[in-house]
Write a structure and sequence with these properties.
- By secondary structure, the protein is an alpha/beta fold.
- The chain folds into 3 domains: 2-155 and 280-348, FAD/NAD(P)-binding domain, CATH 3.50.50; 168-277, 3-Layer(bba) Sandwich (FAD/NAD(P)-binding domain); 352-465, 2-Layer Sandwich (Enolase-like, domain 1), CATH 3.30.390.
- The chain is 32% helix and 26% strand.
- The chain is built from 13 helices and 21 strands.
- The chain has helices at 14-25, 47-52, 54-73, 88-113, 171-174, 191-203, 222-235, 327-341, 370-376, 391-395, 424-436, 441-446, 456-465; strands at 2-10, 30-34, 115-124, 129-134, 139-149, 153-155, 168-169, 183-187, 206-210, 237-240, 244-251, 254-261, 264-270, 272-275, 279-281, 314-316, 355-357, 362-367, 380-386, 402-408, 414-421.
- A 5-stranded mixed beta barrel has the order 1-2-3-4-5.
- A hairpin with a 5-residue loop joins strand 20 (402-408) and strand 21.
- Helix 1 (14-25) packs parallel to helix 4 (88-113), helix 1 (14-25) packs parallel to helix 8 and helix 3 (54-73) crosses helix 6.
- Bound molecules: flavin-adenine dinucleotide and nicotinamide-adenine-dinucleotide.
- The site of nicotinamide-adenine-dinucleotide (NAD) has 24 residues, from helix 6 and strand 17.
Amino acid sequence: MSEQYDVVVIGAGPAGYAAAIRCAQLGFSTACIEKDKGNDGEPTLGGTCLNWGCIPSKALLDASHKYIEAKEHFADIGITASNVEVDVPKMIARKDEVVKGLTGGITGLFKGNGVTALYGTGKLLANKQVSFTDHDGKETTLEAEHVILAPGSVPVAIPPAPLTEDFIVDSTGALEFSEVPKRLGVIGAGVIGLELGSVWNRLGSEVVVLEALEEFLPMVDERISRDAKKILTNQGLDIRLGTRVTGAEVKDGAVEVSYQDSEGEQTLQVDKLIVAVGRRPFTEGLLAPDCGVNLDERGFLYVNDLCQTDAPNIYAVGDVVRGPMLAHKSSEEGVMVAERIAGFKPLVNYDTIPNVIYTHPEIAWVGKTEQQLKADGDNYKVGSFPFAANGRALAANDTQGSVKVIADADSDRILGVHVMGPQASEIVAQAVIAMEFDASAEDLGLIMFAHPTLSEAVHEAALGVAGHAIHMINRKKK
Ligand code: FAD
Ligand code: NAD
């Protein structure tokens, strides 16, 4: 039996569902195949992001932040809160409700826009055919004019720390603990390690983070990564750099982790261990040998800047292709491909992808770091402004961090903006817009920002590039 569609999408994460919705909006008959089932065993749309990634982790980050605020910081602002307690099962259940609401929202968007959701597994065959196997094992061949591959990514596993049912878990398991582990180990001081390490640290775990590299957050602007390490350490994360995990064994209801550092062989006893050492593209069972799509040397689906694979009319988008593994990058690629199929000419600007680490304070940036510019031998100017001098941050009792604007020394064009501070994830959007419009630091300095807002720190940092931030002492007369 075969069915005909203009577009078949494999994978309903942010890359695939955005592509499918946009294709349907553009008038194409569109089917989207998704194999995942949610925590309730029912088919679910939304991919890693909605089910096991961005959304559930932020639900727990926001909840645990509120808890630590109530417990440790309300007193600073004149609120007495006694007996502040955590109900972990309730917190997890609420997280599941948020997920359910949003994944159900995608089901609604598919229905409303006319996307056919096919629950099961897709495999790309030759000649733009896709084999679809539903959850009962029934196979159908789909004929398509265009196929968009969006199968996403999965956590990297490391041989010294094989996952177990309950003790050694990946990020998905770390979103499901039924109680606060007294001692928690995390392998990897990357984005997931710091976000989920922060969640459980706030809720009461003693957290040790083992990171292989000697450097902390090498992709973050150096000054900010230095400050972030201090702040997160003060919050209670015991971050051990330059460690090599050699084994992890479950013994008597706990995990014994062995690792090497500059002082030799060490062991660490923890109640749970999270392995968060990166993600890899997921292509298992996706491609028939004669489908014409190739992988690159790192196992990603090979695509050009327009997300075209080596096979005509076959595209790949999201975590499964080169570039940062981020939900917004994935959806933008999905939408670009849909619109290109319709004959429009959008592009994804890979130079203005915002990055955020949702610790508290948040760390967010767009564009180049100072160390990258130095390494490239570029001439640049820097302006920065601390939240400790920002009225709104002071009013909110949330003053850690700063904004740093880096501009080209000659043209003044903004090359990078780096924020650590309250709502950095929201603030960085202003920098993305400015950079998309090729703004100079002077342009940002000439724009009026509402007072009192955290965003005024962006304004001041931009003024600082030319040395005339208003709320800083500057004795040079110009
Ligand atoms: P996915 O979301 O992985 O979706 C791919 C889908 O394809 C999956 O549902 C999978 O089941 C399905 N699939 C695969 N193969 C097949 C097949 N053969 N047939 C049918 N279906 C198939 N990013 C951010 O930008 N911000 C964040 O705050 C953030 N937080 C994160 C937190 C965690 C804990 C994790 C793990 C990730 C986080 N990410 C975050 C990353 C983000 O989740 C991914 O970048 C994003 O989900 C990638 O989207 P995608 O559509 O490419 O892939
Ligand atoms: P990551 O690449 O951010 O960090 C992995 C860390 O583990 C690195 O610092 C790496 O040096 C370290 N590492 C690797 N092997 C190790 C080993 N054997 N022992 C000790 N340390 C080791 O990866 P992640 O944190 O797993 O996240 C995966 C992806 O998911 C990221 O690429 C990110 O783009 C995405 N994500 C994004 C967000 C966000 O946007 N806020 C949140 C979570 C995840």
